[in-house]
Specification:
With 233 residues, the chain is α+β, with helices and mostly antiparallel strands. Helix content is 36%, strand content 20%.
């Protein structure tokens, strides 16, 4: 890991307007939603990563050196979620990382403790599904996939994802905007077996296509998507 500022490109993301509000954060689209507690009203929960200058990390949960961070977090900060999933221990799993930041460790600890795999995990899971659909589209997804697109996204935000594990919680502090006290950033490591997640998604795909009226071109596009959905997922 170098001491240079790490920057990550924005991904092609379309978020559902009926569930989330889009706002700018470090030149990428991020999300803010109602959640108690919300430290400094800056809640963010992303599967991709945020740009962090290693030089700005002034403390970690396990010490004052960056080398003390767990392997999964170091990989996430340096290369995003794909780098985490390339770690041998996660070879058969999909990895998600929820994040929150603020000035109060008490509030952030409460957020981390009350984060649930049954309710809160639905949001990053659905967003990853939506990103896959958007990435597969050559046109605007609602045009290319018709009713299927809206049905899939709505259903994915309201389904259950069994077998999710909340594996680790870790925090760092960074020197943000020259604040002497620093800002805490908490990370929650979540994993789910690929076979389990793929089973849920296959059921979502089947339900969505069976409950959508599609034109012949839309049906063909949906069929192609279903056949290679997990490539690059």
């Amino acid at each position: 890991m170098t001491a240079n500022k790490i920057k990550f490109p924005c991904m092609k993301i379309k978020f559902s307007s009926f569930l989330i509000i889009i706002f700018l954060f470090s030149s990428c689209a991020s999300r803010e939603r109602d959640f108690i507690p919300v430290p400094d009203e800056k809640f963010f929960e992303r599967e991709t990563t945020i740009g962090i200058s290693i030089n700005d990390i002034i403390e970690t949960k396990s010490g004052h050196t960056v080398s003390s961070m767990p392997e999964w977090l170091a990989a996430f900060l340096e290369g995003g979620i794909e780098a985490v999933e390339s770690i041998y221990a996660f070879r058969n799993k999909y990895v998600y990382i929820a994040s929150n930041k603020g000035a109060s460790r008490t509030v952030l600890n409460k957020w981390a403790e009350t984060y649930t795999t049954t309710h809160d995990f639905r949001i990053p899971a659905a967003e990853r599904i939506e990103r896959r659909v958007v990435a597969a589209s050559t046109l605007y997804p609602d045009n290319e996939f018709g009713q299927f697109n809206e049905k899939l996204i709505k259903t994915s935000f309201n389904t259950s994802y069994p077998g999710v594990h909340k594996q680790d919680i870790y925090w760092i502090t960074i020197n943000e905007d020259n604040e002497s006290a620093g800002t805490y950033i908490y990370f929650i490591l979540l994993t789910i077996d690929k076979s389990m997640m793929q089973m849920v998604i296959k059921n979502l795909l089947s339900y969505s296509v069976n409950n959508s009226v599609l034109t012949n071109p839309q049906a063909a596009a949906v069929n192609r998507l279903r056949q290679n959905f997990f490539e690059g997922f």
